[in-house]
Amino acid sequence: MLEIQKKYTLSCLPSDNPYLTDGWQPCDTEWTASTPDLKVIGDIPKDLNGVYLRNGHNQIHASLGKYHPFDGDGMIHGVYFENGKATYRNRFVRTTGFLAEAAAGKSLWPGIIEPRRAVRRGWGSIGAMKDNAGTDVKVHAGRALAAMSQCSEAYRLDPITLDTLGPDPTWSRVLGERGICSHFKVDEHNQDLMFFNFGEQPPYFNYGVINAANQLVHYEPIELPNATWPHDLGMSEHYCVIHDLSMFFDPEGLKKGQHRLRFFRDRPARFGVIPRYGKSQDVKWFEGIPCTVLHLANTYEVGDEIVMEGGIKTNPVPDLSALPKEGYARMNAMLSLDLQKTRMHRWRFNMKTGQTLEEDLDDEVTEFPMINGRTRGRPNRYVYNALIKPKWQLDGLKKYDWKTGKTQRWQAPNGCFVSEAPFASRDGAVEEDDGYLVTFITNLNSGRGECAIFNARDISTGPICTIVLPGHIPMGAHADWTSATALKSQPA
Ligand SMILES: [Fe+2]
């Protein structure tokens, strides 16, 4: 099968914005395409069964003000694997904002860096953006849930057809406009979903749990001194770790309606360890070196300690003084993961002594850590990250083995960029790294996207199989793997 479902006119193009061109150029077509009508280089493993989903921001309309790569409409690209066959689909998440702009034929909401242009109420932590649902996607209770980093209604999609099913009819009404933030966590051992949201008005942060039966069973405001700017949430077997970091909107500016993200380099990072079903007064706070954190690899418990591993940034705002105020140089500098020098780091929070111990795990700049989902919340040995090129481009993969200290790496060819590459267990696998990494490749040389499959035990030799997709796939945000077994076991 090779079908165009819908074609769009992208009035955001042409553009000189670096996040609308080259690897970031949005795609204009929704496809359904399956083998054998897709070219396959190598063999699709028959013991790789499930669905790989990747979200990303895919702008359609000319933006109100300057476009930022977190603004575009969420588009899910997915490949469903079954017994050596594959089907690719990509679909916009049809959010309320998406539908309203489609009806108007133009942008109705500004983006994250120009909220003052808003003329109507929006969604999320700023309250001015469109609910683009474009950052994260994970499967829970038989549905894929797409959410954005600045909080929004989480949109449900069929995880295979990618049809939008709308916000959950029960719990999304309770959460209201704040909704949930990207990087909610699903415990694969019991299907609890832990989430948070945040905003500029008290309560600045809420924490909650949705259980396997898709019921909101816990929702608590967490007391914080000021509005914060978290991105991820640690999840261990019995606890979650709340992030109150050193980078947030300047509180003085916020009082005047200004959104100036500042790094307060003398303000320690704060991490709140809360029992999975705990309340604000149960949070045990720990301090760490001033930093901000986008993405965690894992959080787990060892004796009296909660151990959290992820990418730390201790100097996240590069020197902008020499850069012109106009143009895209400042936005590029703020978004360049290489300039932020993100590196793998470990925090150990001692629940008895209240002490935090920290150590860097690597000097190299890497991001988007992925692990075997069965080890999420439990001690793990392996982590799979993306290598970073300037301007937020992912140009390879790196595997860490914490037990031996050894690493493996694979460098993508020139003009090719990877997406976040989740680990997919081989059917019947017992050992932690017995499986595959699945990712999309944005290939600027051919103009055609690819789905690449790596042997997770040896990524250095490159993909063992590449499926050539019918159209361009822009670089994007977060990805998820759900096995066929898990899909079947979850009642939708
Ligand atoms: Fe993220």
Q: Can you offer a commentary on this structure?
A:
Helix content is 7%, strand content 39%. It is mostly beta strands. Strands 1, 2, 4, 5, 6, 7 and 35 form a seven-stranded antiparallel sheet that branches. Strands 3, 30, 31, 32, 33 and 34 form a six-stranded antiparallel sheet that branches. The two termini are 27 Å apart. The model has no long low-confidence stretch (mean pLDDT 95). Bound molecules: fe (ii) ion (FE2). Fe (ii) ion binds next to strand 22.
What is shown here, in short?
This protein has 492 residues and is mainly beta.
CATH architectural category:
7 Propeller
Beginning-to-end CA distance, first to last residue: 27 Å
Approximately how much beta-strand content do the residues carry? 35-45%
Shape: globular
Which hetero ligands occur in this complex? fe (ii) ion
**What is the number of E strands?**
35
Q: Quickly give the structural class.
A: mainly beta
Helix content: under 10%
Q: Main β-sheet, in a few words?
A: 7 strands, antiparallel
CATH topology value: Methylamine Dehydrogenase, Chain H
Integer tally of domains:
1
